[in-house]
Design goal:
By secondary structure, the chain is α+β, with helices and mostly antiparallel strands. It has helices at 53-61, 82-100, 121-134, 140-146, 199-212, 244-267, 286-297, 300-307, 314-321, 366-374; strands at residues 2-3, 13-18, 30-45, 66-76, 107-114, 155-163, 166-175, 188-193, 228-233, 275-283, 333-336, 343-349, 355-362. The termini are far apart.
Length: 376
């Protein structure tokens, strides 16, 4: 696998991001990703019981495991907007389909931003009309910028790998900086590849990749309503459908892209000054290890202590104990790198098994409070 230093769209994909007037700042707020042909597609969506209209629409459109375009806006979540919100999300798909002469069900829809405000659908319609004429092979940077909300920088990862004598590309982008918790977060991620793969295999490896990445991060323990990870594979490389050892190789590459994007989200967390990796090992099973790791990662007492570079390890033990899981304080060993570092590792060994889990989080600062106190 080769990690690319520049952003490259896989074969057969075009993209672009523009400003259509949703954001008062005039920054980019509408983006489109398009495949020249229908792609095999898979998605993972928020577990929040209150789901935004675009999440519902995209889930429905993905039932046939295919897609050809993704339309996404930032600055407005189109959530808690009732019947109008559903109509607007469907209208976004319909307008893209008409402009690109593709099927409406092959258009996936995503939104991110403020909850509870009606979507300015007329601005979006006009934007789609302009956007569909501007999509190009070099538009990935503009898409990454157009999906940002409180992010301070675009998040992109691109890799190439050889499969059966063919070179395939995987390109991924993401947004997210706050309301980050597993299942999933206030985040969107769109991943494109020109590899040929079956829908069953793509669904399976996407779930595995998300579990190790986007579902292994937390910033503030708050779960959003709009989150999704979408993958489109259009097969333009014309490789044989991936299976066996090549499937493992592709899975590793996809997992790398997802994990790097997830880490970029945590490193760009609202007000964050520290990137924290928490590994719980020596557990009876992975489920217990991950639950304990998240208990530590979501401890506001610990996160504020780390911000203040206060080595109060008692807060780790308190977080572990509050889960109700039986653990032996005599067997637990905790190692923590210097809190003066920007990147911090906390290793916790329970001493009772062979399973482990790793999660990623950030500290909590005064800046986090300021950002979220003013966000509306």
């Amino acid at each position: 696998m080769k990690i690319l230093n520049k952003e490259v769209l896989p074969k057969g994909f075009k993209a672009e991001g523009i400003s259509c007037g949703i954001k008062k700042s005039g920054k980019k707020d509408l983006a489109l990703i398009f495949s020249d042909s229908v792609a095999v597609a898979a998605g993972v969506f928020t577990a929040n019981k209150i789901k935004a209209a675009p999440v519902i629409v995209s889930s429905q459109h993905l039932k046939n495991s295919r897609a050809q375009a993704i339309i996404v806006n930032s600055g407005n979540a189109n959530c808690m907007t009732k019947a109008k919100g559903m109509a607007d999300a469907k209208a976004m798909a319909t307008n893209v389909a008409k402009a690109l002469k593709i099927k409406t069900n092959d258009v996936l829809v995503a939104s991110t931003g403020i909850i509870g405000k009606p979507l300015p659908i007329d601005k979006i319609r006009n934007g789609i009309s302009s956007l569909t004429k501007k999509i190009n092979k070099n538009g990935l940077n503009n898409v990454a910028a157009a999906i940002m909300t409180t992010d301070t920088a675009p998040k992109k990862v691109c890799v190439k790998l050889a499969l059966n004598g063919k070179t395939v590309t995987i390109a991924g982008i993401a947004k997210g900086a706050g309301m980050i918790a597993p299942n999933m977060a206030t985040m969107l991620s769109f991943i494109m590849t020109d590899a040929a793969i079956s829908s069953q295999a793509l669904k399976k490896i996407l779930k595995e990749a998300v579990d190790k990445s986007f579902n292994s991060i937390t910033i503030d323990g708050c779960m959003s309503t709009n989150d999704m990870v979408l993958v489109l594979a259009n097969g333009k490389t014309k490789n044989k459908k991936i299976e066996g050892a090549n499937l493992d190789k592709f899975c590793q590459a996809l997992s790398y892209v997802c994990l790097e994007l997830a880490k970029k989200i945590v490193k760009d967390a609202e007000g964050a000054t520290k990137f924290i990796q928490i590994k719980v090992e020596g557990a009876k099973n992975h489920k217990i290890a991950k639950r304990l790791a998240f208990a530590v990662a979501n401890s506001n007492l610990l996160k504020t202590a780390i911000f203040g570079e206060n080595r109060n390890l008692g807060r780790i033990f308190a977080a572990l104990g509050q889960t109700g899981i039986n653990i032996s304080e005599d067997k637990i060993k905790v190692n923590c790198t210097s809190l003066k570092n920007k990147d911090i590792k906390i290793d916790i060994n329970l001493g009772v098994g062979k399973s482990f889990a790793t999660v990623y989080t950030s500290d909590l600062s005064e800046e986090y409070v300021r950002i979220n106190a003013a966000y509306n």
